[in-house]
Amino acid sequence: MSHTGSVWTDGLEPGRQAVALGVAAVLTIVAIDVLLVGELSFFFDLCFIVLCLGLALVVRAHDFFTVGVLPPLMMLAVFTLLGAVAPETVADRGDGLVQALVSGLAHHSGALVAGYAVCLGTLWMRQRTIRQRSDVRGSDSQRLPS
What we know:
The protein is 75% helix and 0% strand. The protein has one domain. By secondary structure, the protein is mainly α.
């Protein structure tokens, strides 16, 4: 029997590699934005949403949960890192780690919600497609040859 899978149903990367890709990409986006603008801007927000979509598209079906919980964790990690190293990029210069974390999450909550919704929606559509495909294969295998 030939394999008729696709990237949409099978994915490309295991969960661990998708997480590593996501972390590397989000840190690259942060570095570019901070170097160009001096703080996180709308550029970060847009790239974060696109990154969430990309991760939902490349992960293998077996690891949907891993990528499904990744967007808020990536955002939390970014703002924790920036709050510890360069709080002025997400908050006022004198703010501490916790205030920078809260300010960063508040200012970029739209990107977090949109990225998370895009990620979960994409994973849901992929899961639905996989179930439909397996239902079709199951009904085909139950037919008797004539």
